[in-house]
Amino acid sequence: MTSIIHLHSVPDPAAFSRRARGLMDHHTETKQQVLRGVFEDNAGIPRTFHGRGRLRSGAGGRPASRHPYRQRVTLVVFLGLLALFGFSFRMVTVDSNGPVAMQLAALPPDLLTEPGNAFPGSAPPAGTPSPRPDRGAPVTTGQYDAMLAHLGIPMADLFNLRIRTIVIDPGHGGIDPGARGRHGLKEKDVVLDIAKRLRDKLAGYGKYRVLLTREDDRKVYLKQRVAFAKEHHADLFISIHINALPAGSPDLDYVETYYFGPDADAHSLALAERENRDSDYLIGDFRKVIARIGDTLKTEESKQLAGFIHDRLYRNLRRLNPGLLDAGSKTGPFVVLLGVEVPSVLVEVSCISNPAEEIRLGKPGYRDKVADYLKTGIVDYLEQRARHRTIQRGTTEHVAEQER
Amino acid sequence: MSPSKKDNMLYVGIDLGTSRSVVCASNGNRKWVDSYVGWPKDFVARKMLGKRVLFGSEALEHRLALELSRPLRNGVITEGTERDEAAVHELIDHLVELAGAGPDEELCIAVGVPAEALKVNKIAIRNAVARHAKKLMVVSEPFSVAYGLGTLDNTMIIDIGAGTVDFCIMHGTVPSEEDQRSITMAGDYVDEQLLKLLSEKHPEADFSLNTARKFKEKHGFVGDSKRRVKIEAPVDGKFTEFDITNEIRKACESTMPAVVETAINLIASFDPDFQESVRNNIVVAGGGSQLAGLDTYLTEATKPFGPCKITCITDPLFAGADGGLQLAIDMPEEFLEKL
């Protein structure tokens, strides 16, 4: 099929031959032009030929100038940049009567007015139009950092991030020892120690209320753990466990982190079954909590929290234990995660059935490091969440302004 | 196939599609794979499957054990999704492997991608291909189809894919943005419509998006047809026969008004002196071109706007990759040196 050569009956064979040759030459020429076009497109060279057929103002079959198109592209890029900077401005716009604005007002004038330090969110006095160049000026991350450092406002507070209470749930306890190592080390003891260390580390930040679902070696049903989190208005819930493989399995050592989700592989289901024992949930209760699976916001947040904790824990523990495997951050149907209505994860720190790991877990220094890496994951998640909320706020306000 | 310009050069055409990806090489290799990439979810799955990554139908078959990605599912790599970007890398690695280059062979690759992906993800795709070939080109799918068919002048290509329908007018040069349109009412949309219609009419039967797609690919048609489409689907575990003629026709025709309107608008934006030529050279490519009765239906539907001659290509699966391969072979050496 071709649109180039339309064969039809020609009385003079010589004339036909000339015409066919002419058309073939034209086809070759067209092909060369196309090949050059592809080359220029891929080599980032502005195109020199623009073909026939497209609407053009000039006559005589000459290609139309592409400049209007380029100008349009330039205009679009320019408007895009303008919108971006406008967007950046909206991102950090604060209530001019709010506490943050009051603190901003107390900033030294040079921080607000010096071109290099210009902070576009600085609220002008009421009724004074803000000079446009300042509003549109690009802002670097360093400038935000400088502003925050000067104010001494934590990012989370500045953007009204309401994570105050973190509930840490050391798994098992009392008559339920959890997994047990070959030398007799019990999961319930290790996770309680790690949980207490984690609590102390997080409490050191001075801005979180950190609670444990059990402070000592006693049996706490899963339902009680969930109720504890609700009663104390938990904002984050982190359940700490230690894995174990059945006797006769290879001596693997791995980290895995779960957040609630119905999708799970056989391995996760088996683990969930083990961890869900003694949940003390009635079937009716269970149905109610199952109905909350559609709570995608919680799932999304939990997924992110799990990702941060898992990443920090695995990468750091790997340095201490090069044989450590990464079993990933994933979903699993754990009752304790389902019942809690806030971002919640279950961390299987390592594998106590691995004799070498059992020895490591028996050392306070190692448990302290584990607690430290868990803390890093949680704090990094909170920081990231603060940044994310900042962007979301900017987007919402920007759209609202357009709609007006 | 034209002979290679260099003995140690392997020319490769790749069609990176929403639904299927295809590779054709100058050594005669012609392979395709469903555009699915899957990584084992955990080490248990990895051990069971024995592979780091799975592709195409194999990935679909084991999807429960995999983190599955269909990287160009909307015609573009979804922005900010590392997994989709990684999937594109894996898919290109796999396609290059399927090309079967010898150990000493240098590669020259031309990749055709959905028109929207060319605008949005060109650099990402170039980077993915650049790991295998220093000489590479990324072009739009409809353009590579047109190049393969040799329809470079006054032709409109309508590439009906899974994620998008791409329209492109060829007028003796590489099409610019003004020469192209894309709509997202494409193959995936038809599948969703068909599933919806079937579920509404036969709520007792179990249908899935995957089965709807299979029914469409096997029985899809537009326009009048005397043939009845009968399929079997499970009802309470027992296979039962259903006549889905009306549903399949309605679903397949659901995108047609948008296709006709976009095609006519694009032709109308063209120089009036050449509009008639374009009307007489409308080529329909992509998986959607295989709907029975499509050429007749479109010819009838476009009649009110002036007579059009519409042809559906016979080998839509390989047309894009064949065009890419031809492009790579034809590219003059002096240009290749600089790419």
Task: Summarize the model shown.
In chain A, 52% of the residues lie in helices and 10% in strands.
Biggest sheet strand order of chain B reads 3-2-1-7-8
- Average residue pLDDT of chain A: 66
CA-based gyration radius of chain B: 21 Å
Largest sheet of chain B: 5 strands, mixed
- Principal-axis shape of chain B equals flat
Inertia-based shape of chain A? elongated
Oligomer: heterodimer
At CATH's second level, what is the architecture of the domain at 165-389 in chain A?
A: 3-Layer(aba) Sandwich
Instruction: Give the CATH level 1 class of the domain at 165-389 in chain A.
Output: Alpha Beta
The CATH topology of the domain at 165-389 in chain A is Aminopeptidase
Can you tell me about this structure?
In chain A, 52% of the residues lie in helices and 10% in strands. Chain A has 404 residues and is α/β, with parallel strands linked by helices. In chain A, helix 2 (67-91) crosses helix 15 (364-403). Mean pLDDT of chain A is 66; it is low at 1-11, 46-52, 55-75, 84-141, 148-161, 290-294 and 390-404. Chain B has 339 residues and is of the alpha/beta class. Chain B is built from 13 helices and 15 strands. Chain B has a five-stranded mixed sheet with strand order 3-2-1-7-8. In chain B, strands 11-10-9-14-15 form a five-stranded mixed sheet, sandwiched between helices. Chain B has a three-stranded antiparallel sheet with strand order 5-4-6. In chain B, helix 3 packs across helix 4, helix 5 (141-149) packs across helix 12 and helix 6 (187-201) packs antiparallel against helix 8 (245-253). Chain B is flat and about 60 Å long. The A-B interface holds A 1-4, 27, 30-31, 33-43, 47, 49-56, 66, 69, 254, 256, 265-268, 325, 327-328, 330 and B 41-45, 64-65, 126, 136-139, 147, 149-155, 169, 171-174, 176-179, 269-271, 273-274, 277-278, 280-281, 283, 311, 327, 330-332, 335, 338-339.
